[in-house]
Amino acid sequence: MPMIRVEMFPGRTVEQKRALAKALTEAFVTHGKTTPEAVSIIFVDVAKEDWATAGVLASDKQ
Amino acid sequence: MPMIRVEMFPGRTVEQKRALAKALTEAFVTHGKTTPEAVSIIFVDVAKEDWATAGVLASDKQ
Amino acid sequence: MPMIRVEMFPGRTVEQKRALAKALTEAFVTHGKTTPEAVSIIFVDVAKEDWATAGVLASDKQ
Amino acid sequence: MPMIRVEMFPGRTVEQKRALAKALTEAFVTHGKTTPEAVSIIFVDVAKEDWATAGVLASDKQ
Amino acid sequence: MPMIRVEMFPGRTVEQKRALAKALTEAFVTHGKTTPEAVSIIFVDVAKEDWATAGVLASDKQ
Amino acid sequence: MPMIRVEMFPGRTVEQKRALAKALTEAFVTHGKTTPEAVSIIFVDVAKEDWATAGVLASDKQ
């Protein structure tokens, strides 16, 4: 049943998402004591202009 | 006040979303004892390459 | 794959949650063209002091 | 550590998001007793056809 | 329609949440060009043992 | 900047959460090409009576 939602900057390739899905699932199976089939993962791209820290948009920090 | 957030694969038409909004609201009014005006629903499309189960992207399962 | 997350005021009984889960799933299967097994639902209780509209906590509106 | 997630209709400009990020952070620092660096904000655009209230899509209310 | 969800460490008083709700709503009305009635806010307490950065639980950082 | 939110059944110990936080962060650093400091993780316990699949509460499936 673990539902893992990942918000991240855009730009990861499908290959990276493939590897992330596999590695995050394995990490959860090993340390969270569950089965791979129980683990769901959603990736959500958040543009740098839509993510702020300390009051400043990430797109304004470069 | 119920806030219903639905994450789903892309592809539902506006007509389907219209019908879903109506039916989900009615279900909640009937069984959750609230009023239609209190119910908010958000639909979020999640691409198959962004949704993994058992460590495998949905886009890799076809 | 639809993941439905419902935020609502506390107080619904297990029976109400049971009926809501069944009805929301049926609504999605009928209008969202999916199978019951694909539908996951999470209920999240939000206390009235933690939910504000128009700048006022719901617990202050009674 | 406050993580603020804002779901809103599309259409705000980068300038508005810049001002919102600054103002929301200041509001939190002042009233939530934290530091600007601790505050993260994510903006999520939700199309009017994906947001329903009282069982009706926002895009159908105009 | 803005829906603002705030995840934060536990411990804010009702008075602080009252002030936060007011200030966050005002910030959004001013800079997001909307009305107070359109703004909903949800506060979610997250225990320090449930929040990690750099792989370390916040509860382990004191 | 990756923000990882994990919804799971209650019952994991602090030790398990500690190990999960470490392993999930490492998985992301390795495959998501980021730094440990950029990764935040939130664990959210969801009771079995609040999680349904195929229209049936998890608490009713035992």
Question: Can you tell me about this structure?
Answer:
Six copies of one chain form a homohexamer. By secondary structure, chain A is α+β, with helices and mostly antiparallel strands. The first copy, chain A, has one domain (3-52): Macrophage Migration Inhibitory Factor (2-Layer Sandwich), CATH 3.30.429.10. In chain A, 31% of the residues lie in helices and 27% in strands. The first copy, chain A, has one helix and four strands; from the N terminus they run βαβββ. The first copy, chain A, has one helix spanning 14-32, and strands at 3-8, 40-45, 51-53, 56-57. A two-stranded parallel ribbon of chain A has the order 1-2. In chain A, helix 1 (14-32) links the parallel strand 1 (3-8) and strand 2 (40-45). The longest helix of chain A is centred in the middle third of the chain and has 19 residues, at 14-32. Chain A is elongated, with a radius of gyration of 15 Å. Chain A starts with a strand and ends in a 5-residue tail after the last strand. The model of chain A has no long low-confidence stretch (mean pLDDT 96). Chains in contact: A-B, A-C, A-D, A-F, B-C, B-D, B-E, C-E, C-F, D-E, D-F, E-F. Chain A binds chain B through residues 14, 17-18, 21-22, 24-26, 36-37, 39-45, and chain B through 7, 46, 49-57, 59-60. Strand 3 of chain C pairs antiparallel with strand 2 (40-45) of chain E, so a sheet runs across the interface. Chains A, B, C, D, E, F: Keywords: Isomerase. Chains A, B, C, D, E, F: It comes from Teichococcus deserti.
